[in-house]
């Protein structure tokens, strides 16, 4: 089993950070057919072949995902896609401040 850990700093308002977290989790759901649910300040993600959590802190996003055997073959592609989505959304939200 492999894992993906992504950290992104931000200077967003809480509302903007929640919007980014929702968009990232929505993208994960669309790409990998997973389910997401909020629990406190975290979004839990789970589905066939992966599980994890996106934690929302005042100045940082922390995403930790465990990949099952089949998805671990696509580790680099999945990580790059998630990082690109984070970067795109954070760039867009930062410009709207």
Word description of this protein:
It is a single chain. The chain has helices spanning 14-32, 69-72, 75-95; strands at residues 2-9, 35-39, 42-47, 50-57, 60-67. It is α+β, with helices and mostly antiparallel strands. The protein has a single domain (2-90), classed as TATA-Binding Protein, CATH 3.30.310. A 5-stranded antiparallel β-sheet has the order 1-5-4-3-2. The mean pLDDT is 89.
What's the overall average pLDDT, rounded?
A: 89
Share in β-strands: 35-45%
Biggest sheet, in brief?
5 strands, antiparallel
Question: What's the number of helices?
Answer: 3
What's the quick description here?
The protein has 97 residues and is of the alpha+beta class.
What descriptors fit this protein?
3 helices; five-stranded antiparallel sheet; 97 residues; globular; alpha+beta
